[in-house]
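Record 1 of the preview.
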Amino acid sequence: MGWLWKLVAFYGAATVLAIAALYLTALPSSPDVSGFSRLVIAHRGDALNFPENSLLAIEGAKQLNADAVEIDTMMTSDGVLVAMHDPTLDRTTDGNGPVADYTFAEISKLRIKGVNGGSDIPVPSLEQVIQLVLKLGLKLEIELKTETENKYQASTEIVRLFEKYSLYESAYVSSFDPRFLYYIRSENPKIVTALAIKSNPPYNKLVEFLIRRDAILDYLGVGIILPSIDIADEVFIEKWLARGKAINIWTPNSGREKSFYRNYSVSITTDCPGGTC
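->
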């Protein structure tokens, strides 16, 4: 039976080392997230009336009395973060092909497709978005898309912008990909991060299993959870509020949905901040 004890000892030692590694690499607890509760957040700006993720859509959200805007980001070939939901240009601009194949100067020459056709609106950089949001007195959710290839470079660029504009109380960073959140708070733990989750997440089964463990949020130092509306029921909300997390639910649009969530101290990201749709 000596081999059995050796096997037990081996796995026991491996478990202890794994736990120690997790403890040593865990990130600090999240900064205060109370400033990001009970917000009405315009999904990609006022995208019903203006081209999504455009500066006009952000101004439109302000006119509808939104508290904040959610803006998606992708990275150009020369490392500039632009306001763009898709990894390709085809759906939202008059260009084509991957965003990552273009420099920012090249993308700046393109125009965003309007709600009802063409437009003369350029693709803004994330920095231009930040400047406008601060000018308008809005808060900002920056979503880093999972399709971004150079995740560490994108994360360090986010950190640079947070430090340049001192965004700690006016913005936070969200993603389905936990690597972004780990990289960002490893570089600057003052930044608030949010983990997005949904029923069919865009990653493999192993990552999904880990993300579903409650402890992973503490390991990442995540302060905000972004559940899709189909999983954000009363039990889910009360559980995470009790644990001190802020919650931002996407995307309640109907009157019934919005009325339900007004009963809780949660934020909502909606396509129609000025009413229902």
